[in-house]
Amino acid sequence: MSAESVPAEPRSAAPAARPSLTERRKAATQLEIARCAAALFAERGAAVTAEEIARTSGVALRTFYRYFRTKEDAVAPLLSVGVRQWIDDLAAPPAGPAAPTVREALELAARRALTPADEPAAEALRRTRGLLRAMPGDPALRAVWHRVHHDAEEALRPVLARMTGADALQVRLAAAAANTAMRVAVEEWAAQDGPVDGARGPAALVTRGMRALTSGLPELDGPPNGRPAPGN
Predict the structure, then answer these.
(1) φ and ψ at 129, to 5 degrees?
(2) CATH number, domain with residue 127
(3) What is the largest CA-CA distance in the chain?
(4) Which InterPro entries match (predicted)?
């Protein structure tokens, strides 16, 4: 099955409580600090200091430490935002009378997450590439990357449990496979200099990885619970 053959059903997000103004401002400040931190780490590696990150992002050092325990923790909001988006996309009920299979829904959500819709999204991926290239010289930075993906795997489990109705082991295996496919796709793309689209772009790589890692999980071949199969 080619990527193009997966039915691109539109998805509608489930209603959610809107964060307060204070929470939105805090999240915006954290993300801006994360962007500055990512740019500095990509440029200078482990030599970057918390003072530099605070100064570049326009906040006091005391404010920086109110949000983050370490300089490496500062990049977590940038890495986490894409994770939250693709899991929310997967969890949203598809519009229309029929749903893709769970396997197809996983692939669609992964491809959407790694296909930039605009220049800011493309820039976020490029920042992630810079961070990944800085990680070999900074184990603490790599630990943040793995922590973000551990949290993503944990967040995927209840979503896949609702979609499949499978037992806990199968759900855990599916979450681990999907999360690993996402992580490896971005790491492989970041290790070379190609564009974000094309045969070696992260969306193409995650398609290959997702299919390889989930091929032994028949629980993903049905439609999400409570939805008719495509064509029915």
Answers:
(1) -60, -45
(2) 1.10.357.10
(3) 60
(4) Homeodomain-like_sf (IPR009057), HTH-type_TetR-like_transc_reg (IPR050109), HTH_TetR (IPR001647)
